[in-house]
Amino acid sequence: MKKRKNSDAPHIDRHVVDNMNKVMTTNDGVPVYDNNNTLKVGDRGPSLQQDHIFFDKLMHFDRERIPERVVHARGSGAHGYFEATADMSEYTSADFLKKGTVTPLFVRFSTVAGFKGSTDLARDVRGFSVKFYTQEGNYDLVGNSIPVFFIQDAMNFPDVIHAVKPEPNNEIPQAASAHDTFWDFISLMPESAHMSLWVMSDRAIPRSLRMIEGFGVHTFKFINSAGKATFVKFHWKPKLGVHSVAWNEAQKISGFDSDFHRRDLWEAIENGQFPQWDLGVQLIAEEDEMKFSFDILDPTKIIPEELVPIKIIGTMTLNRNPENFFAETEQAAFDPGRVVPGIDFSDDPLLQGRIFSYMDTQNYRLGGPNFHELPINRPINGKYNNQKDGFARMDILKGNSSYFPNSQGNGCPFQAMMKGEVGYQTGKQQVDGQKVRARSNSFADHFTQARLFFHSLSAEEQNHMINAFSFELSKVNKEEIRKRELAILYQVEPALANAIGKNLGLKPSKSLDPLTVKFAKQNHPNYPIQPNKPEVEKSAFLSMKVKDDEGTIASRKIAFLVDDGVSKKSVDIMRKALTKEGAMVVLVSSHVGSLKYKEGDMEEVQHSYLTDGSVCFDGFYTPDGDMVDKLAQNPDYLQFINEGYRHCKALAFAKSAEKLMDKSFIEKDSAVNCESSGSNWINDFIQALKKHRIWERENSRKVPS
Ligand code: HDE
């Protein structure tokens, strides 16, 4: 197959409209002479009903909003491409996974609970949807940033979402799970224990959308050209590593810049720092379906990488921002039911429910069955069938036959089989059983993998989780709910429950609440069922701790804290070293506009201590200069460095600025780098920035901010 470039996406480019140098027209192309005044009798009115130009404008305006997504309403999108790098023909016939094939794609990241205008830094799972425009049709991999889900069966989906969304009587709170109805539901559904730990971990407050992992969550199937199936789990691994902010930071970012993640993604792409992810797969032979201590069809379970290693099969690069948010990001219609030849569903009962829901929701949200024809949703290989009419049909189907079989249209479009082609083939599978509404006993172990997750985290990550649970449960008003959840957490790990209990002033019960058991018995009448012994009790792949040989400062935002009189030389030495590593240097001063250097030069500054918070940056440098004494008197500067220190970020001080530390709570450590400590101080600063955060610093925290 011909190698394709990302720019090769004519289905979108063909529809881009450019108003530049054009005369304004109505929607029918009639030139508009005056776009300021309605048609009136005399210049003081009244207005006339015959003002078709005004009606044309207002009628459109009145219909500008469409329903936001029920979940994942808040999202940010980007275009890019996927390059397949491994020979996967043994497992799948998917054309876009043939080694060397380049496929254009569109990605949408999202939060789940908040409305369309909610803050990016909400504690939440992130949606990670990818639409591959393959030569065999669109393939949507609609995943999340957390590898498991709250529930096991699609029947409970509206319930979990109703529970997490703002409460129905007062519509409070926005984009937050810290409220009674959410924890009421979670504490009655022990199957949600595993995911609730992930959502209370730092994974739920990412530093950047460019630094999250993506997971297909369900087990899917690959089908090869001989029809043989292999179970597969999908993983996206970010090249920049997986990183999060501190909860205190997240809360403040929401105030300074509630578009923080959207802006970060946009700016990185505009700056040419294209985010990349490797696509990995875990492959499980069909005959091994039942060989694990857990059920691979259960979406509340991971397959530890120690059991089935991840094989990297390609790389995704995001290199183009949308031209128009609404037309592209908002109208993008993702659907896990959109699969291409070589990819098939497993019987995971959550996945099976999704195959219905997404198409149904798009039909409603995008106003009818022709949403496939919107530029962002169009398959690049064309669509040819006999489906016709419906709201806003865009294609003009030629000829008089729109049925099959026909002779009038030469039998077209042909079924693939009539052309000797394979087309989409569902994998053959033996199915035999009674029709029942029931849940398999192999889905009844709710705590073993939650425990695995907790035990696999670093001490700091465990602490963050304890604090997150304490924060959330403190916001729950009903004590019975707090107690019920603590009892679940006790089953996961007594140390976790005891630490949270201390913060709540409660002693956790050692056994599950009778109401939790009552509900669990509805799915598993013999609940609790003795779990199988797990193969792995600790996994090396679940902690986000940065290993020594990992880490990059590429695209990291480093604030240079300055004021008039700062030394240009001192700024430039550090700026050169950091930008060489790909970091973004941002000057923050006491005012925006022209900054006057000690040497007399001027530079434009767009950020000030008033407009930006320390939480918007990854590290801080205070250069030399005549402004040092002034900064010592500037409480906003002092808050910047104190807070940066509190949030465990790296700080550097040029020689004459070191005395500013005396005005702060900062104590020297491996990530507080001073010029006077030796010639390696700039490199030490870079190494500290590569670590992302020095979380250990939290253990001796003294900063009150
Ligand atoms: Fe979704 N989900 N979901 N979901 N989901 C939607 O589709 C649904 C689930 C996910 O960027 C909706 O277009 C059901 C798991 C993402 O546009 C809706 C069930 C995972 C997105 C819907 C699930 C996801 C959605 C709302 C349980 C991770 C955003 C608007 C059976 C693997 C897509 C829309 C985008 C969106 C239904 C569970 C991920 C209502 C019924 C598990 C990333 O159709």
UniProtKB/TrEMBL annotation:
Pfam families, sorted: Catalase, Catalase-rel, Catalase_C
Domain named Catalase core: residues: 25-412
Superkingdom of origin: Bacteria
Cofactor: heme
UniProt record, GO biological process: hydrogen peroxide catabolic process; response to oxidative stress
Active site feature: 72, 144
Sequence positions that bind heme: 69, 108, 157, 354, 358, 365
GO molecular function list: catalase activity; heme binding; metal ion binding
EC number(s) given by UniProt: 1.11.1.6
Stated role: Decomposes hydrogen peroxide into water and oxygen; serves to protect cells from the toxic effects of hydrogen peroxide.
Family: Belongs to the catalase family. HPII subfamily.
Protein name listed in UniProt: Catalase
Organism expressing this protein natively: Sphingobacterium mizutaii
